[in-house]
Amino acid sequence: MIDASMFKKVLKGAYANLENNKQMVNNLNVFPVPDGDTGTNMSLTVKTAVEEMSKVTSDKIGDVAASMSSGALMGARGNSGVILSQLFRGFAKGLKDVKEIDIDSLIGAFELSTKMAYRAVMKPTEGTILTVAREMNEFAKEHGKSYSNVEEFVSHVLDAGEKSLQNTPNLLPVLKEAGVVDAGGRGLLCLFEGALKVLRGEEVIFIDVEEVEKEESGVKGFEIDSSDIKYGYCTEFLIKVHKENLKYESALTAALKDKLTPIGDSLVAVHDNGIIKIHVHTNVPWNAMKMAATCGDLSKIKIENMREQHNEIIVKSEEENKKEEEKYSSEEKDYIFIGVAAGSGMSKILKDLGMDYVIEGGQTMNPSTQDFLDIIDNTNGKNYILMPNNKNIIMAATQAKEISEKNIEVVKTRTIPECIAALMVFEPDSSIEDNAENMSEAMEEVKTGQVTFAVRDTSIGEKKISEGDILGILGSDIVADTKDISEATLSLIDEMVDDDSELISIYYGEDVKEADAEKIGKLVEEKYSDLDVEITYGGQPLYYYIVSVE
Question: Where are the transmembrane segments (predicted)?
Fold first, then answer.
């Protein structure tokens, strides 16, 4: 039997195990690009569930489960996080009137959990976390009555889940091509593994190392002119060393110091029991991460722009006696637009086109359901249009619409170019329903391509990709794989342009020099002289270029 106190311990253990393994889950991303964030999204979702659950003083299982569900619902990030929040929601419903959790109550909770998750997805795809959850539930229903021990029962449910997970590539061809199992399914099993450890009396400890003090790292603060900051990004992360490299931990740390020294300063590299902690000031944080990724799995990644921080401190110092501007406007508006973007340039573009609020996020940093609700609840709009601008944020935006009582439509934009096209056709005198329909049609007229780098060696079909390759991605296809950013970008554009094309828009990221972007623009203009070509600063991280053709 599991009482309320033990239930809290089980959930905390489940969360700790997922947090410890989130990078492993992230690495199961089908594309070897730096935006695999399934593990991160699931971990952040469970974190809010644990935080809400920890506030409950009641000794009733139902109260603890309800708070867990509420936290997961509000903190859900990414498609995997939203599905997980629905699994939690169904599980909590199943435990509503339970005094102590036994095998019978677990069987009922698993069934409601699976039903709730499937209902949340308009077109459920088999070979995903949904399949793993369903087949674990089916095992529980079929065999649960033959067990008398909760620990043994959960152990065998987990075994059924592992079997289901290993079969996901047979259900989803894209997984088989990439040679991976489903990331969401693996994340779910990480939760069960942590829960089982607690049931067995084990303590699940978060993997971490002691924080390096600022004095040790050479960080002196910002009492200097920002123009004197040679290296602008304070970059920190942990490396969980691969098992085969554990005996070389000291040598790896020394080698990383040698590699990172030429690209930065204020370098600290320390190791402890299989974990290497890196702190460096650099202008190329992603290069630092690529070097480190050869040694193990990265986690606890933090990148801060010290020049912006310095400017913010100066501004606050100058205005310390002035009232800080309100974050939200109290003005009543017929329409309020809420979008998501990464990069100062992208945010400015959207705001110039009428976007009222831009949530910082996108690849690797999906906003939560609560992020949308915070704006909705604190503003005064008759109608709200949410534009997620990323396929992995659509479900969080949709969940916000379902939770809120305000009049909301979600225009399911998957990219910033789609969002721009949709905003261009907005009619303030039309109904929200008509606008949502027209905006959805407009976004489908835009093709979006992206240029980034491969974070690992892999094979997709017959295509062999090496770590560090520059990839041109169109939709769900890698259409360019080279060693050169310009070459990949030009090849991508060639794949995108057809006889109906009229405009090519190229948005360059934070790691691209304006001169390099202009060079590419001139080459494109020469090749496609009958098309309009626009070069714009987007400032997006990770992606050298985002290209739209319409």
Answer: none
